[in-house]
Every structure is written in C-alpha cells, then in structure tokens.
Amino acid sequence: MEIGVSLSPATTGNAVDDVVAQAREAADAGLQAAWFGQRFDYDAIALAATVGREVPEIRVGTSAVPIYPRHPLLVAGQANTAQAATHGRFRLGLALGARSLIEPAFGVPYERPITRLRDFLIATRSVTVDGVVDYHGETLTAVTVRPAPLAGAQPPPPLLVAAMGPQALRVTGELADGTLPFLAGPRTLEQHIVPTITAAATNAGRPAPRIFAFLAAVVTDDIDAGKTAAAEHTAFYDGIPSYQRVVALEGHDRAADLAVVGDEQVLEDAVRRYRDAGATDIVVTETDLLGPESRSRAWKALGEIARSLG
C-alpha cells in the first residue's frame, strides 16, 4: 500500500517554491506520493511535473483535473510532458467536476457527463499509449494530424478518475487504471465502489483497478479545534450531489463527519479500516488545517504507518 498526501501551496511568497519544500518534507517523513487538486490559481499537471522533477523520491499525481472544458489532445500532451519530466512517476487523475462549478466558470454546458468521460478516456489513452488518435466520439473529436509520441514519456502515465457513482465507476473500470474517491468511507468503498469498478474491469479484461482512497485527517490533541476546522473546510462539499450521495451511503449527514480527527493511533486505525475495505492506496488530505506543526505530526505518523504496512 502506498501512502501519500495532498499538497496545497501557501498564499504568500512563491507558491511553487513552497509546495516543492512541502514535498521534500513529505518525502523525508517517509511518504511515497504527493497529489495536487486542480484549482483556478495554478495548473495541477504543471505543478505535479515540477514537484516530481525537483523531488525524485516521490511519485506525483493530479486529484483531479476536470475534463470540462478541456480537450484530450491537450491534456494528453501535458500528461506526457509530466511523465517525461518525472521519469515515469506521474499519474493523471481526471474528474467530471460539478455542474455548479463548470457552467458558471467556463460557460460550457455540463451535458452527457458519462458519455463525455468515455470519449475523453478513449482519446487520451490512445495518445498516451500509441502517440496517435483518430477518434470521433459522441461528444468530442480527437485526431492527431501528425504522430505525437513523446520521448521519455514511458511507460504511459496511468489514467485515474475521481469516480464514485455507479455509471462513472463502470466506465472507469472499463477504460482507466483506477479511481480516486474522496469522502467515501470504508462502508461505501467495500459495498459500492470496489465491487462496481472491479467487476467492470474484469468484464473488460483489464487488470484489477487501483483504489486511491482520499481521507481528510487532522492529527491533534485538541479534538474540538480539529473538528471545527474540518467542518469549515469541508462544508463546500455538502452542496455537491456526488459528495452528498457518498456521505449518505456512509450513514452521515455532512462531509465533516468523515474527517479523521485525533492522535496518531486514531489516524493509523483509520488507514487500516480503509485498507481492509479495499483501498489499495491511501492519500491523506487536510493535514494542514491546524498549521504546520499539526501537519508535520501527521506526516511523520503516516510515514511510520507506511513503513509498518510495507
């Protein structure tokens, strides 16, 4: 099992320098991967490529880049560049995104998301694996007018999808290499996510998918402060239908109810629960909600957990 963390740059100084320093600290603590969400202030693929090149001890990935309004030819080119820059340590995580964000921000209709996901994955994999594509799907066209393989971008970067609903999971199992569920607890993993994506992969003749379970965790002795910070930071997800569904499947009302708050033993117990539920890998987020000391404490604990799990 690989254990990684999600990184976010500081709001002062130089954001890229800061996140590179964070990645070095994470690697020194024994963590094995760093992940970057896509925001409006930086490009996640470019940031992952930079960090992976500067800190060669860790693997890097995006968690995740929305496919609206991007085109697979451009995303595949970015991913191949990141794979070459990191000498094969990059993972491309994609997401459908949310209608409430996509349409106001980009002015494009959030239509036929599952079909769009299928088209996007087929075209992207063709470019990253073969260097060529001639695909005319229902929602997009992707044609390389000249071959587009990139020297050094081997093996092809794994394709991962932040899929949690049954339709998205089935497409992901059929066409991608794994999923990146966030705020999906152990019960939801074991009873819904893992069986659905695994069956789809098996039916498609693909290898067993990797399940990168993302869980929010704050390591602290001040439980009230940790829970308050987690509630404030995760309230955003309470208004997004896909997250509402997985939170409800776990038997909770709010995203904050899935946050792990407590000491090192509480964190280790949570990691083991997710592993036992079918997670092949763990990514811990929100470790910095109470400041750098709490974050360092969490990363040190996670490094020790990684070593104990082998």
TrEMBL record:
One annotated GO molecular function: oxidoreductase activity, acting on paired donors, with incorporation or reduction of molecular oxygen
Keywords carried by this UniProt record: Oxidoreductase
Superkingdom as given in the UniProt entry: Bacteria
All copies of domain Luciferase-like, residue ranges: 9-260
Keyword Heme appears in the UniProt entry: no
Nucleus among keywords: no
Database matches in InterPro entries: F420-G6PD/mer, Lucif-like_OxRdtase_MSMEG_4879, Luciferase-like_dom, Luciferase-like_sf
CDD domains assigned: Tetrahydromethanopterin_reductase
PANTHER family reported in the protein's UniProt record: 5,10-METHYLENETETRAHYDROMETHANOPTERIN REDUCTASE, PTHR43244
Protein name, UniProt field: F420-dependent oxidoreductase, MSMEG_4879 family
Biological classification of the source: Bacteria, Bacillati, Actinomycetota, Actinomycetes, Mycobacteriales
